[in-house]
């Protein structure tokens, strides 16, 4: 499935899609949000994560993992509060 196939909806039913290079997600609450996501990142393939109820983007896995490691190093050095 691709992002273009998602149907935007009002929160809390809006689809949540991973973003690259961080641990955030984008909520697709309307066509503008969906079109902006596609413009920024392309009409990427998505996979449903049943456990956490959001759409994963396999193409972003490497950059998200690198971000997570960098964030962990920062927290180990400076604390997380």
Structural notes for this entry:
This protein has 81 residues and is α+β, with helices and mostly antiparallel strands. The chain has one domain. It is built from 2 helices and 4 strands. The chain has a two-stranded antiparallel sheet with strand order 1-2. Strands 3-4 form a two-stranded antiparallel sheet. The termini are far apart.
Mean pLDDT: 96
Count of discrete domains = 1
Please bin the fraction of helical residues.
25-40%
Parts with pLDDT < 50 across at least 5 consecutive residues: none
Radius of gyration: 14 Å
How large is the count of helical segments? 2
Share of β-strand residues? 5-15%
Task: Tell me the overall shape.
Answer: elongated
Strands side by side in the biggest sheet: 1-2
Calculate the terminal CA-CA distance, rounded to whole Å. 38 Å
Question: Quick summary of this structure?
Answer:
The protein is of the alpha+beta class. It has helices at 31-41, 61-78, and strands spanning 16-18, 25-27, 47-49, 54-56.
Write the layout of secondary structure elements.
Layout: E1 16-18, E2 25-27, H1 31-41, E3 47-49, E4 54-56, H2 61-78
List the defining traits of the structure above.
two-stranded antiparallel sheet; 36% helix; alpha+beta; 81 residues; 2 helices
């Amino acid at each position: 499935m691709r992002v273009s196939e998602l149907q935007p909806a009002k929160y809390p039913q809006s689809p949540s899609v991973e973003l690259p290079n961080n641990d955030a997600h984008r909520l697709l609450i309307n066509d503008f949000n969906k079109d902006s996501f596609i413009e920024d990142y392309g009409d990427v393939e998505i996979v449903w994560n049943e456990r956490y109820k959001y759409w994963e983007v396999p193409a972003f896995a490497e950059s998200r993992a690198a971000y997570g490691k960098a964030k962990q190093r920062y927290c180990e050095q400076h604390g997380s509060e």
